[in-house]
């Protein structure tokens, strides 16, 4: 069956299911009780057939969210037994966090040991990254505290899972940051302790002779690549985990959590737009970056990032675009990859939103200081994972658990995570592209009237080089 026919069938079935559901709900006409439900399930079957044609993991996650919600609504007693599926997925995700964070942080810090050679440019880039991501952090916090998207989620049936935050003194909090045994920290899921260990390890690695540093750095790079692939494999189970979690949640609490998830989605998009207008645009104007040319240059890589939800997929085209804008290649080659580890504007903003949303949904009040500690932890643990779709979800789950918050609100987020991932990844790419232009201007090397060589010019240049070589 052609895709266009499938789409038409989907629309017809969706419209039919909606009409029958509304008619049955308002008793407009007498309908058999099973008719609206049958129409909805026919729509879901057609949607699954369409998903099999698309072969997109993101689309399958969306389909499983709808199927799980419908199953939880129609068969609530059976749906409550589906929690095991989400628990399996949660356990698999938790196995990723420690090796992924350790490897990406070591590569991100020790792999850029040439910061000493780059000198002032490296320092300027790191200062810029931290300032901008801090703005993103506070905008995310402000947005979720204003919208209160997680407040009001029904706690019926969830009392047994609700955890109260542990009362700790300031000394306890400080001591809790530092590991006494890294194996114990990994086993207990203490992600901040893993981060501290990885940072100190990376600094020590950067200080040793190149002959000793290279093997360990290669091991860390290999480990990070393997863990990225491991994440991809685990994410193939995501549709099943999402379906089970959604069925269980709707079976327990009805459709109220989905309404809160929609509020969270609107909050994220509004916060990202505010970040672009209030932070990135003023930075571009202050640095005298030609905004119109910049927008034209990044249009393609940002579109790729939005569609694929992967920053790495857009990296080659983004680097070309920045060179075409007038940023020297040596600056692009340093700032862009470094930014992928340290300048995750969209991801940082999303994580601050999502972490506080979890606390709000669980009915746990966090002080502003507690929120800052949690999102600062998320900001550190997210370094280096922006290139992998939904990797930020891995970080969120692990950090939420380490702060003694329940995991079930995260699965409410998971149902719409793909839609949120598109926007935050696009902002990540936009922020990194702007960073290269700003650092180039800061270094006094931005070419304002740069004209990229055409293919004809390049061909003529190659022929000239060839003639001289003979």
Q: Could you give a quick summary of the protein structure above?
A:
This is Glutamate/aspartate:proton symporter GltP. The protein is mainly α and 470 residues long.
Can you lay out the helices and strands and say which pair or pack?
Blueprint: H1 3-25, H2 34-54, H3 57-74, H4 76-79, H5 83-110, H6 115-118, H7 120-147, H8 170-177, H9 182-188, H10 191-207, H11 210-235, H12 238-253, H13 256-286, H14 291-308, H15 311-325, H16 329-342, H17 345-361, H18 368-381, H19 391-402, H20 408-414, H21 417-442, H22 455-469
Walk me through the structure.
Residues 156-168 and 453-462 have low confidence and may be disordered. Helix 2 runs antiparallel to helix 3 (57-74), helix 5 (83-110) packs parallel to helix 10 (191-207) and helix 14 runs antiparallel to helix 15 (311-325). 44% of the residues are buried. The chain contains 22 helices and no strands. The protein folds into two domains: 1-55; 83-442, Sodium:dicarboxylate symporter (Proton glutamate symport protein). With 470 residues, the chain is mainly alpha-helical. It is globular and about 70 Å long. The chain is 79% helix and 0% strand.
């Amino acid at each position: 069956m052609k895709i266009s026919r499938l789409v038409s069938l989907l629309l017809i079935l969706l419209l039919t299911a909606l009409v029958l559901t509304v008619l049955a709900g308002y008793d407009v006409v007498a309908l058999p009780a099973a008719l609206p439900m049958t129409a909805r399930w026919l729509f879901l079957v057609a949607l699954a057939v369409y998903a099999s044609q698309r072969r997109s993991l993101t689309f399958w996650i969306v389909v499983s969210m709808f199927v799980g919600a419908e199953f939880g609504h129609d068969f609530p007693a059976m749906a409550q037994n589906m929690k095991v599926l989400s628990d399996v997925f949660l356990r698999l995700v938790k196995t990723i966090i420690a090796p992924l964070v350790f490897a990406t942080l070591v590569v991100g810090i020790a792999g850029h040991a040439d910061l000493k050679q780059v000198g002032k440019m490296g320092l300027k880039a790191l200062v810029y990254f931290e300032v901008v991501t801090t703005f993103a952090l506070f905008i995310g916090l402000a947005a979720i505290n204003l919208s209160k998207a997680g407040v009001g989620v029904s706690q019926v049936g969830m009392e047994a899972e609700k955890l109260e935050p542990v009362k700790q003194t300031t000394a306890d909090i400080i001591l809790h940051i530092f590991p006494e045994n890294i194996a114990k920290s990994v086993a207990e899921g203490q992600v901040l302790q893993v981060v501290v260990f990885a940072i100190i390890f990376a600094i020590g690695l950067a200080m040793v002779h190149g002959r000793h540093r290279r093997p360990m750095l290669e091991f860390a790079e290999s480990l990070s690549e393997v863990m990225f692939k491991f994440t991809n494999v685990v994410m193939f189970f995501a549709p099943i985990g999402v379906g089970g979690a959604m069925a269980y949640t709707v079976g327990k609490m009805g459709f109220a959590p989905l309404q809160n998830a929609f509020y969270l989605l609107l909050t994220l998009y509004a916060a990202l737009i505010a970040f672009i207008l209030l932070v990135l645009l003023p930075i571009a104007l202050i640095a005298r970056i030609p905004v119109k040319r910049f927008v034209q240059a990044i249009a393609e890589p940002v579109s790729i990032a939005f569609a694929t939800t992967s920053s790495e997929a857009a990296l080659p085209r983004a680097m070309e675009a920045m060179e075409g804008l007038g940023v020297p290649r040596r600056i692009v080659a340093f700032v862009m990859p470094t930014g992928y580890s340290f300048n995750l504007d969209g991801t940082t903003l999303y994580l601050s939103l999502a972490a506080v949303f979890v606390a709000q949904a669980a009915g746990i009040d966090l002080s502003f200081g507690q929120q800052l500690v949690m999102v600062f932890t998320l900001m550190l643990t997210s370094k280096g994972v922006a290139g992998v779709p939904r990797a930020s979800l891995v970080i969120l789950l692990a950090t939420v658990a380490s702060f003694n918050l329940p995991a079930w609100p995260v699965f409410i987020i998971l149902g719409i995570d793909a839609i949120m991932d598109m926007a935050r990844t696009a902002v990540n790419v936009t922020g990194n592209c702007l960073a290269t232009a700003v650092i180039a201007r800061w270094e006094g090397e931005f070419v304002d009237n740069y004209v990229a060589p055409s293919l004809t010019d390049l061909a003529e240049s190659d022929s000239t080089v060839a003639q001289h070589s003979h």
